[in-house]
Each structure stands twice: as structure tokens, then as C-alpha cells.
Amino acid sequence: MNLGLLHRAAREALGLSLLCGLGLFLFQGLFALLTPILAEDFSAQFLKTRMSRFFLSAMLGAEIDSVGPGLFAAIAWAHPIQLTLIFTHAIASATRVPAAEVERGTIDLLLGWPVSRLQVLTAELCVFALSSAFVVLAALAGARFGLWISGASNGPPLAQSCAVALNLHALCLAIGGLAWLCSAGAERRGRAIATPVVVVLVSMLINFLAPVWEPAKALSFLSVLHYFQPFATFAGGAWPFGAIAALLGFAFTACLFAALWFRRRDLRTG
């Protein structure tokens, strides 16, 4: 492992990681802080309304049949603001090398170092995995900090929150792996970003429709969000090892093909 490449990749990733991490910490903290207030006006009667159940089920990707602390925690972890920050970090980080370097015309400078392309990609992947863990831990820290400040005693157990955080990290790596695969063969960063963005949007649409529409439910296994369902974890208490394994398997496969493509392709600038 080349320390110079690691230092360069970490320097490039620092700003975005801090920004997304701060955003996730503040969002989770504020949501946890406001949860006791929201819970006072939220009751089981709310779920008797068909429209209410539809929107909650669509957001969480699962049928909602009870009200409790796990429901509010799941809403926070599956909230569009949270997922937008996670996906922004993953896609922006994974399309920096080589797509952005090729577009800027600086790929020759990077590959001019006495290192192989595989070493460059390995350093970028290691920094991405660590920076993704940082932003997810920032979200977890914000959630626990908000619970502590609010004084709530009926929040979700730390073990369940850690399980959801690990699942979210695996989701981030999977989206990043897809973005890296697209970046490895792209001449422009915009083209590399387009495919993972479309995949995310289609996944959100399938996840939105699956609880209420059978054709979408049949296709739900194609959605990356099908493998991230925090409500099931908070409600059941079981760790989602199967979903985590599926996401990590996809991430590993995508990164492997990205490395092969990046290693063999002809890189031209200008």
C-alpha cells in the first residue's frame, strides 16, 4: 500500500466526508430530539388511515402495523434527507478516480507516479470504505446524542442501532461500487454519475410502490433499498446479515470489475 496515494485520497475525500458527516449528525440528532414531541401527537389511530399507512409503508419499504420507538427510529434512518446525503457521498467519492481525473486532464499526473493503476484504485477504495464508515458513524452518534439530550428512556437499543448502521454502510459501499464501475469506463464524470443516480431513483420508486402494488413487489429484489429495511431490524431485533451479505457481495463484485476495467482501458485526456 502506497502511503502517498492514501494521503492524497484522504485529502481529496476530507471535505465531502466532513460535510456529509456533519449533515447526518445534525439531522439524526434533531430528529431524535424531536421524537418525544412527535410521539405525543402520534397514536395507533394514525395507522387506521389508509393514506397514512401508505406513505409510511412506502417510505420504509415494509408494512407498518404498530406504533413504537422503533417506528420513529426507522423513519429517521430511511428518511430521504438521510439517504440523499449517504448516496451523495458514495457517488461523488467513487466517481473522482478515474472519471473526474480524466475530465480535468490530470490523470496523467496521477499515473505519472511510480505506482500501478491497481495501487491507485486500492488506495481510493480503502479511503472510501473508511470515509463511508465515518459518515455512517456520524449518523449513529447523532441519533444517540439526540436521545441522550431529549432524556428519552424508550429509544431503540444500541445493538439494533448498530445493526442498522452496519446495514447502511453496506448499502453505501454497494452504491459506491456501482459508481466506481461506471467511473472506470467513463470519459466524463457526469456520465459516470448518471447510472448510479438512475439506479437509486428506480430503487426508490420500486421501494415506494412495493408495499401497495403487486407488480412492484415482485421486482423489489432488484432494488438496492430492498436490502435496507431499518423498520424490520428495529421491530424484530434480528441483525440483517443476509441483506448485508448481499450488498457487500455486490460491492465486491462491482469493485473487482471496476479494477479490471481501469487496469486495461486506454486513458486519454482532452
Briefly summarize what is shown:
With 270 residues, this protein is mainly α. The chain has one domain (3-264). It contains 12 helices and no strands.
What does this structure look like?
With 270 residues, this protein is mainly alpha-helical. It has one domain. It is 76% helix and 0% strand. It has 12 helices and no strands. The protein has helices at 3-40, 50-60, 69-77, 80-94, 96-104, 107-111, 117-150, 158-184, 189-209, 214-218, 230-236, 241-264. The longest helix has 38 residues, at 3-40. It is globular and about 60 Å long. The model has no long low-confidence stretch (mean pLDDT 89).
List the helices and strands and how they pair.
Layout: H1 3-40, H2 50-60, H3 69-77, H4 80-94, H5 96-104, H6 107-111, H7 117-150, H8 158-184, H9 189-209, H10 214-218, H11 230-236, H12 241-264
Descriptive keywords:
single chain; 270 residues; 76% helix; 12 helices
**Structural class by secondary-structure content:** mainly alpha
Rg, Å, rounded: 20 Å
Question: What is the chains' assembly state?
Answer: single chain
List the uncertain runs.
none
- What characterizes the major β-sheet? none
Percent of sequence in beta strands: under 5%
Query: What series of H and E elements makes up the topology?
Result: HHHHHHHHHHHH
Task: Compute the number of structural domains.
Answer: 1
How far is the N terminus from the C terminus?
A: 30 Å
